[in-house]
Structure formats: structure tokens, C-alpha cells
Amino acid sequence: MARRTYGKKLWLGFGVTVALTLLMGASSVFALSLVVNAKDDAINLAVDDLVYSEHLTTKMETRIGDWRLFLLNGSQDALTESEKDRTEFLSTVQKLRTTLDDPTALTLLDQVSAAEAKHAAELDRVAERRQALTNLTDINDLNASAVGPLREAMREAITALISRVRLDVETARKDASDRATEAMVLIIALALLATAFAFVVAWRLGRDLRRDVGAAVGHIQSSSAQLEAAAAQQAGGGRDQASAMNEITTTISELLITSRQIADSAQRVSKIAEDTADAALTGDATIDQTRASIAAIRNQVDQIVQHMLALGEKSQQIGGVVDLVSELAEQTNILAINATIEASGAGEWGRRFAVVAEEIRKLADRTAGSAKEIRALIEDVRGAVNTTVMATEIGAKSVDAGARQFDDATNSFRRIAQLVATTNEATREIELSTAQQSTAVEQVNVAASDTARVTRETEASAVQTKQTAAHLSNLSGDLLELVGTGRR
Amino acid sequence: MPPAVTTAGVQSLVFRAGSLLCALRLDEVIETMRPLATHPLAGTPAYVSGICIMRGVPTLVVDVARLLGGGQAQIARFIAVRSDQGPMAFATGEISGVLPVDADAAARHEALLGDAQARLIAAVGTIDTEPVLLLRSMRLVPDEVWAAAANLAGTS
User: Fold this and answer.
1) What is the ipTM of this complex?
2) Facing A340 at nearest CB: one of B27, B30, B98
3) pLDDT: is A293 or A214 the higher one?
């Protein structure tokens, strides 16, 4: 079930109370109308039936009076009046017949009519005899002795009717009184019910008010205390913040000075960066010349390598020729020795031939020695060529490595040039930004001053808030007393 | 530089055998040549290198340096010599040439050479200041070696 608000509860309680009040009022009106109707009935009964009944007596007595006047003077007028009185009597009877509700009363009314008819018939007979009389001394001739009992009978019948009507009136009055009493009881019951409900509503509202509102006010009181503490803390923080803002303002002023110095430095750096960019452009042309020189060196080294390789091949060919010469010298040496051996057994001619052969062998030895020296020289040349080729190749590789390193250095230099250009742009941006920063710092300085002022105002507001919170706490205590919890 | 030739002595073929300078009488020498392909011969002394085909004839090859007690030496020439059993090849070092070597038998120095060496060396001469061993080729190879070579030749 959803939690009802106090507005709804109040509306509901007062609505039910008002509804019960309206019901009580409507019931009162209804009961009053019933009582009024009952009283009207009783009054009507009393006014109409009882008056008409009493009027019967009156008319009967009036007719009897007129009838006696007729008997006395024999006047036709008196008789006419008497008949007129009877007509009114009958008319009253007829009215009573229409108004009476009680069967007993109607029966009694019939009896009255019957008695009146008998009495009228007897009067008519006596009237005929009276009209025949001319002298009142003959009154005894009227023989009107039967009239008296009939009249008494009619009186008794009317009296009985009146008594019955009176009884009916009394009964109607009593019924009306009973209805009025019932209405009073009903109204009192409704009033008690409305009062009890109003009491219950008031009790429940009071209880809920004490419970919920008291709890809420308690929360408000505790929150007020917390708010007061927070306001006190905020006030202290505001004071600290105000002092800090003063320091910030001082620092920002120093920062403003530093920022202006930075702007000047950035301007100088921008000038230096522009000079560096110009120098980088000059260095770029030098790099191109150096690259061309390195390429020329590389070509020369390649040619040297080719020439040295050709020299190695020629040396190898010379070595082949020298090997052939050495081979021939060795073979000549062998042949010369063998010739000497053969010549040794050939006598004098053989000795001469041996001399020649020995000379040939010596030539062959010299040739072989020279060939060996040439071979050694060629080997030295080949070794030198190989060493030179290797050194040249190493040099070529070094040139290539140097070229690559130079390319790397060139790329690095160009990268440096680009970076210098970027640095130049960045420096200009820094210069611009620093100028903007100086302006911003000035604005920050103004803002910091405003903030310091606002902080002081905030501190004052915090003090005011603290006082308000304390006042709110006191009000909460008063409200707690008002709602009846009595807690402080 | 070739050694100086003395005026007296027997004309001999002077050659190197390891560190030694050796000589052979020219009447024992057939010819000189480059080293030929040599096949090792089982059951022969260590100084017999093997057998080669020289002029179409199987010929024993004797390593002179190893024969004279020296170590392994580089072979530069083959010298074909005459012996009682036929031609024989000496594996030697470089040939110095045909020089007169003093073949005085009194200079055999048997006290130094002993019987075994005296059987191989006819005399010890000098060329300049270096001693020269004059070899006797006829007695270089024992008979059993010749028998083994004959057997090998017979089986081959």
C-alpha cells in the first residue's frame, strides 16, 4: 500500500468526517421531515378529524337549536335553518369520511350517520306534526318523546366518534413523538459516530504527526546540526581558501612576469630557429656535393678493384710462364747431369762434352734460380694484389658503409632540418601561445581576485548559513515540542 | 751456390740425402730422373721405399736418407745405379752435380762408422768444409730384399 501524505490523510479524515456530518445532516433533515410529516398528520388529524368531529357536535346542537326554535315559533325559516344545519352536518360527515383512515372511526362515523338519519327521520315526523299545530298548547300532540333518545343516541355516537378521533389524534401524536425520538436517537448516534470518527482521525493524525513529523523534524534537527557543523567547516575552509587565493594571486602575478619573460625568450628562440633553418638549407646543398664526391670515390674504387683483379690475372699468367721456364730448366738440369754421366765414360771427348754439359747444367740452375725468384716475386705480387684487392674491397665496403652512413646522416640532417622547421613553427606557436598565455594569466589574475572576493563572500555566507542552521535547529526543537514529542 | 770443385779425387755424382751430402761414383750411376710412382713393398726394411717401373723394368727404390740413419727427407730425384742384381733407384734430395770427391780409403773412419756403415760407405771426403759420404751402391741392399723384390716381380 502506498504511503499516504498528510494532505491526503487530512483530506481523507476531514472528508469522511464531513461525509458523516452531511449524512448526519441528511438524516436529521430526513428524520425531521418524517417528524414533521408525522406531526402534520397528527395536526391534520387533530385539526380536520377532531375539528370536524367537534363540528358535528356543534352542527348537531345548532340544528337542535334551530329545530327547537322551529318548534317554538313554527317558523319556516327556523326549519330551513335546521335543514341547512343538517346539510352542513352531512357535509361534515362526508368530509370526515374522506379524511378518516381509522376503520373503527369510520364505523363510528357510520353509526353517527345512522343515528343522525334516525334522528332526522324522527324530526321530520315531528316537524309535520308541528306544522299542523297552530297553538302551542297542543304541544303535547307532537308526541316528540322519541326524539330525545335518538338525539342522545346521536350524541353518544358523536361522542364516541370524538373519543375515537381523540384517541387517533393521541396515537398519531405519540407516533410522531416516537418518530421524533427515533430521529433524535439516529441523529445522536450519527453525531456520536462522527465525533468518534473525528476523534479517531484526530488521534491518528496526531499520532502520525508526532511519529512522522517528529521523526522528520528530528532528522531536520540533526541535519541542521550537521549543516551547522558543515557551515562552520565551510567558514573555516573559506578563510583558508581566502588566504590560499591570496597566495594564488601573488603566485599568478609572478607567473605573469615569468610568462612575459618566456614570451621574450620564445621570440628569441624563433629568431634562432629561423637562422638554423637557413643554415640547414645551406647544409643541404653541401650534402648533395658530398654525396656526388662519395659516388665518384666509389666509382674510382671499383675501377681500382677491376684493375687489381686484372693485374692478379696477368700475374697468374706470368706465373704459368715462369712455371714452364722452371720446368724446362729442371729438365735441362737433369739432362745436363745425365749428359755428364754419359760423357764421363767416353774418354777425352766425353770430358769435353762433360764440360759443356756442366755449363749447360749451371745455366739451367741459374735459370731455375731466376725462375724461382720470379716465382717468388710473382707470388709476392699476387699476394700484394690480393691484399690490395681485399683492402680495396674493404675500402669499397667502407665507402658503401660511409655512403649509407652519409645517407643516414643526410636523412638525419634533413630530418633535423624538418624538425628545425617544425621547431620554428612550434616556436612561433609557443610565442603566440605564450602571448595568449600572458593574456590568459592576466585574466586568471583578475578571476583569482574575483574568486578571492567571492571566497570572502562565501565565508560570510557560511557564517550566515551556520547561524541559520542554528536557528533552524532551535526551530526544529520548537516544532518537536509543538508536535508533542517533547524531544530537544 | 754450388760447392767448389777440388782438383783431385774421383768424379762423383754429389747429391743431398736429408741433411747429409752424399756421392756416387759415376761408373755406378746410370742416369738421373725425376721421382717416379713408387709402390710400397711388404717385408722389406724401412729404407726400401718400394718398387717402381723404370725404363719398363721393375726397380727397387731405396731411400738414401733413411738408409743412412737420417729421418724422413723430401725426395727430389731418382738416381738409377748399377748393382750386382741389376739396376736400382736411389731416392735422394737435390743433385748438386758431378764433382771430384776424394775417395781415400784411409779416411773411412771405421771407428765412427762401424761395420754396418762401413759396408755402405766407401770413403768420406769433403767438399769445401762439408763432409761427403761416398757410397757403395753394390752393397746397399741385402740379399733378402732382392729376394722379396724377385718374389714380388714373379707374382706381379
Assistant:
1) 0.82
2) B98
3) A293
